[in-house]
UniProtKB/TrEMBL annotation:
CDD domains: AdoMet_MTases (cd02440). Coiled coil: none annotated. GO terms for biological process: tRNA N1-guanine methylation. This is tRNA (Guanine-N1)-methyltransferase. InterPro entries: MeTrfase_TRM5/TYW2, SAM-dependent_MTases_sf, TRM5-TYW2-like_MTfase, TRM5/TYW2-like_N, Trm5a/b_N. GO terms for cellular component: cytoplasm. One of its GO terms (molecular function) is tRNA methyltransferase activity. Gene3D superfamilies: 3.30.70.2580, Met-10+ protein-like domains, Vaccinia Virus protein VP39. The keyword DNA-binding does not apply. Keywords: Cytoplasm, Methyltransferase, S-adenosyl-L-methionine, Transferase, tRNA processing. The lineage of its organism: Archaea, Methanobacteriati, Methanobacteriota, Thermococci, Thermococcales. Pfam families: TRM5-TYW2_MTfase (PF02475), Trm5_N (PF18093), TYW2_N_2 (PF25133). The keyword Metal-binding does not apply.
Length: 336
């Protein structure tokens, strides 16, 4: 993702100018190197005409916690310390903020809306989030402020992703995972992504690598949005994406094997054997696992590899908290 290489003495004024122009990418941290500072900027034609070198450079993301802290400090004006303890993390997806409001803050919904709008003046919709439901993993939302829509365009990792939270699953917190996988992928790879949703993984990887991706999705509305996203990102993508509408359990057996398989598995679905059988070099398998079961999960994958006659090494990475003691994890399975 782009960064502007600026002499150290000029860093502060340039940063202010970038912010004024709406070109500064506040989600990443700047980095100092010798007499220069790399300032994170968004993908935009205008950054190339500022008179500084623009480089594709890896800058660390600010933890979401820090963004949340801003809301906390704004709300400290109105909420008691006790009430602030109940404040939950929230997400900003395009111009929509989604937040969970616990019963202890039910009477403070108006203040929370005020605080979110103060921290993020560009918001057009604020919604409360419920739980993911059904096979398509769609959340239940209720709009508490703004326009009556759950459709927006989210910008992440240099791509634009059209989402409709009322029709298809999307999780902005997986941004770091998508970036991590894009870094692991090499040009020339053939990649399979079942359970592909509106294509966030496929778009981010194709943005940075010249690869051939086959993606599969069963929710018709997610599939339509995914097709729109391929069009929308058009020339930005180095790689190619073929998108298949259908049930992964029926479609995959008909497909060949791939260098890499990425399985953002829906909760409660067991696609381990199916996805492993399609992977030649790597499988990245997402699942939800109790912290005491992580070793058992690893052993299960190794056993599955053995059954399929594959030599594997497995590293299980905790990706996010799901509920107390249960994590969303990614098993990076290296084959051969
Ligand atoms: C956890 S979501 C991940 C979506 C997307 N990869 C993302 O990260 O935003 C799982 C996705 O699998 C889809 N899905 C569920 N069962 C499926 C099946 N049998 N075949 C293909 N897709 C399926 C759901 O509609 C949903 O979009």
């Amino acid at each position: 993702m782009p960064a502007l290489k600026v002499p150290r003495q000029e860093a502060e004024p340039v940063k202010r100018r970038l912010k004024k122009l709406g070109l500064y990418d506040g989600k990443r941290r700047p980095k100092r190197e010798d007499d220069f500072v790399f300032l994170p900027v968004i993908e935009d034609e205008r950054v190339y005409s500022l008179g500084y070198e623009v480089l594709p450079i890896e800058l660390p993301f600010r933890p979401a916690r820090q963004i949340y802290k801003n809301l906390e400090s704004v709300l400290a004006e109105r909420l008691s310390r006790e009430e602030l303890k109940h404040l939950r993390r929230y997400d900003v997806i395009g111009d929509i903020a989604v937040i969970q409001v616990p019963p202890e803050l039910e009477h403070r919904v108006g203040d929370i809306v005020w605080g979110l709008r103060k921290v993020h003046p560009f918001l057009r919709v604020i919604a409360r989030k419920g739980f993911h439901e059904g096979a398509f993993r769609i959340r239940d939302y209720s709009i508490i402020w703004g326009e009556k829509r759950l459709e927006t365009v989210h910008r992440e990792n240099g791509v634009e992703i059209k989402v409709d939270l009322s029709k298809a699953f999307f999780n902005p917190r997986m941004k770091g995972e998508r970036y991590r996988l894009a870094q692991m992928v090499k040009d020339g790879e053939r990649i399979l992504i079942p359970f592909a949703g509106v294509l966030p993984y496929a778009l981010v990887i194709a943005r940075y690598r010249k690869v051939k991706i086959t993606a599969v999705e069963l929710n018709r509305e997610a599939y339509e949005l995914g097709l729109e996203n391929i069009e929308r990102n058009g020339k930005r993508l180095k790689g190619e994406i073929e998108f298949i509408y259908g049930d992964a359990f029926k479609v995959l057996p008909e497909l060949p094997t791939y260098d890499r398989v990425i399985s953002p598995t829906p909760r409660g679905v067991d696609a381990l054997s199916l996805t492993l059988s399609k992977a030649e070099k790597w499988l990245h398998y997402y699942d939800f696992v109790h912290e005491e079961e992580i070793e058992t999960f690893r052993a299960r994958i190794l056993e599955e590899c053995r059954k399929l006659g594959k030599e594997c090494s497995v590293r299980v990475k905790k990706v996010s908290d799901f509920k107390p003691h249960v994590f969303k994890v990614c098993a990076d399975v290296k084959i051969g």
